[in-house]
């Protein structure tokens, strides 16, 4: 199964398992289990989406958005529960206006779920921990 | 067992936490499902919080609150409380995965923007329908938008949108506004804002990409207004679901579901307090929510010390 390393963005091929005791990136040697949240921009989004065989959960946000800020720590906390199951990513729509336009973002926070490069689900509005877990679980 | 459990981390909950811990309660946890700050973080501007004389955004206003309010030992747990119940003298808070016990509870769950119940509103939420101009105004630069509502929030957010958008059509069902005279004046003078009074939105229309316009019923008949965005500010619904128990609410609420309290923020249940937007007759202002929080904390201290 292809996994993008959240530390160095190297594509790793790892066996698919129910759970992992240990998994390190072949290139940077950092643990693939410890960090599961990355920032995406125009430069790396497509590359990450097509090279992830696990679902990618993308949070479109901006610094001036209260509900986005509220959800920020929830998103990070929940990301840790899904290492090597689903990759969590953030797109700052202030800096990445082309991506905002490309994905037709008109409201933030918007959460989009991608599988093999294709968008399969989308939700707008802040989610709490349980809501977010349910959304991810649905796509595993 | 907690001395005091605070549910909600907006202005009311944060202030209550500050007063409760500084006032001597040891075991105080504020349950807030996200980052503390509350709904004012959705506001583009606030200019009526005394002592903060610069016009700041809601996010800026709230930035320093958590640090100050947690200085005396208030703990924040990022948890959404599902249900509050009472067993004898002990309160039980259901977090979804465990039950937390507390001697006293303060409900400060605030309120949420109300849906207007318009045709197309649900379908286009996130695709042109928005309840937060600060969050989403950015996506409508030089575009035409519609604002629905006639209170302070609707007018203030219309003024904010007029700075970003090419045109703002304000649709309000009455012929007068319920807002501060200064704000009404600014709206009337703004040449980017067009008023459609005594009018209602019949339907929000759009395509696959999202909203393209709204049909408005005016005194002169139906008109189509082109717009990519529609911002709805028609009031608030209080967040009282945590108080729902089998057979009704844990404490007395009024016809709108707002929690009944006395001047000390005591509810009909001993040891249960409510503060801020969630209580009846709330002015729905940050300064009032903060004041309520302080009052409620002092009442909780004397309740806990008396038991
Ligand atoms: C767009 C806008 C503009 C405004 N402008 C002004 C203004 O100019 N001046 C002014 O004074 N006021 C203004 N207000 C009103 C002001 O924001 C509110 O009156 C104030 O925030 C109420 O504070 P509160 O603590 O009672 O509730 P809230 O601020 O609503 O906070 C409640 C908190 O509880 C949390 N919560 C809810 N349920 C649960 C649960 N079950 N478990 C855990 N956490 C939970 C929520 O996440 C939230 O953070 C504005 C509001 C809006 C939306
Ligand atoms: Zn790596």
Short recap of the structure:
With 140 residues, chain A is α/β, with parallel strands linked by helices. Chain A has helices spanning 45-50, 66-79, 97-102, 129-137; strands at residues 2-4, 11-13, 37-39, 56-61, 87-92, 110-115, 118-124. In chain B, 22% of the residues lie in helices and 29% in strands.
What does this protein look like?
The complex is a heterodimer of chains A (140) and B (307). With 140 residues, chain A is an alpha/beta fold. Chain A has one domain (35-138): Glutaredoxin (3-Layer(aba) Sandwich). Chain A has helices at residues 45-50, 66-79, 97-102, 129-137; strands at residues 2-4, 11-13, 37-39, 56-61, 87-92, 110-115, 118-124. In chain A, strands 3-5-4-6-7 form a 5-stranded mixed sheet. In chain A, strands 1-2 form a two-stranded antiparallel ribbon. In chain A, a hairpin with a 2-residue loop joins strand 6 (110-115) and strand 7 (118-124). The longest helix of chain A has 14 residues, at 66-79. Chain A is globular and about 40 Å long. The two termini of chain A are 14 Å apart. The relative contact order of chain A is 0.19. The model of chain A has no long low-confidence stretch (mean pLDDT 96). Chain B is an alpha/beta fold and 307 residues long. Chain B has 2 domains: 4-112 and 236-306, FAD/NAD(P)-binding domain (3-Layer(bba) Sandwich), CATH 3.50.50; 115-232, FAD/NAD(P)-binding domain (3-Layer(bba) Sandwich), CATH 3.50.50.60. Chain B contains 7 helices and 19 strands. In chain B, the strands form 5 sheets. In chain B, strands 1, 2, 3, 4, 5, 6 and 19 form a 7-stranded mixed sheet that branches. In chain B, strands 8-15-9-10-11 form a 5-stranded parallel sheet. In chain B, helix 1 (11-22) packs parallel to helix 7 and helix 5 runs parallel beside helix 6 (181-189). The model of chain B has no long low-confidence stretch (mean pLDDT 96). The A-B interface holds A 62, 64-74, 77, 93-94, 100, 104-108, 110, 122-126, 128-130 and B 33-35, 37, 39-43, 57-59, 78-80, 96, 125-130, 132, 134-136, 138-140, 209-210, 228-229.
């Amino acid at each position: 199964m292809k996994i993008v390393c959240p530390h160095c963005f190297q594509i790793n091929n790892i066996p698919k398992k129910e759970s992992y005791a240990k998994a390190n990136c072949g290139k940077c040697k950092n643990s693939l289990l410890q960090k599961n949240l990355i920032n995406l921009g125009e430069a790396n989004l497509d590359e990450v989406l097509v090279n992830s065989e696990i679902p990618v959960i993308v949070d479109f946000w901006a610094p001036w958005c209260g509900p986005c800020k509220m959800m920020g720590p929830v998103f990070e906390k929940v990301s840790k529960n899904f290492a090597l199951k689903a990759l969590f990513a953030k797109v700052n729509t202030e800096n990445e206006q082309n991506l905002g336009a490309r994905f037709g973002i008109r409201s933030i926070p918007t959460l989009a779920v991608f599988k093999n490069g294709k968008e399969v689900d989308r939700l707008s509005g802040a989610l709490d921990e349980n809501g977010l877990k349910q959304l991810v679980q649905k796509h595993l | 067992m907690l001395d005091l459990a605070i549910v909600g981390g907006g202005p009311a909950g944060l202030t209550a936490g500050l007063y409760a811990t500084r006032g001597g309660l040891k075991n105080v946890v504020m349950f807030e499902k996200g980052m503390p700050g509350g709904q004012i973080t959705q506001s583009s501007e606030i200019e009526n919080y005394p002592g903060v004389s610069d016009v700041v955004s809601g996010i800026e206003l709230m930035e320093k609150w958590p640090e100050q309010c947690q200085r005396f030992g208030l703990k924040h747990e990022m948890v959404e409380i599902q249900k509050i119940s009472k067993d004898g003298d002990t309160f039980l808070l259901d977090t979804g995965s465990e039950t937390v016990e507390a001697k006293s509870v303060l409900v400060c769950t605030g309120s949420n923007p109300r849906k207007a119940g318009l045709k197309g509103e649900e379908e286009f939420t996130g695709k042109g329908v928005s309840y937060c101009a600060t969050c989403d105004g950015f996506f409508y630069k030089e575009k035409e938008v519609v604002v629905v509502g006639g209170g302070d929030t609707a007018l203030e957010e219309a003024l904010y949108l007029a700075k970003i958008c090419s045109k703002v059509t304000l649709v309000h069902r009455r012929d007068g506004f319920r807002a501060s005279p200064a704000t009404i004046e600014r709206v009337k003078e703004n040449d980017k804002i067009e008023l459609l009074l005594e009018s209602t939105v019949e339907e929000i229309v759009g395509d696959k990409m999202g909203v393209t316009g709204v049909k408005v019923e005016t005194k002169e008949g139906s008109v189509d207004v082109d717009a990519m965005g529609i911002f709805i500010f028609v009031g608030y619904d209080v967040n009282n679901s945590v108080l729902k128990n089998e057979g009704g609410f844990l404490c007395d609420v009024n016809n709108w579901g707002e929690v009944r309290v006395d001047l000390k923020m005591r509810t009909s249940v001993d040891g249960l307090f409510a503060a801020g937007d969630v209580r009846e007759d709330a002015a729905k202002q940050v300064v009032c929510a903060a004041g309520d929080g302080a009052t409620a904390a002092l009442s909780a201290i004397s309740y806990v010390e008396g038991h």
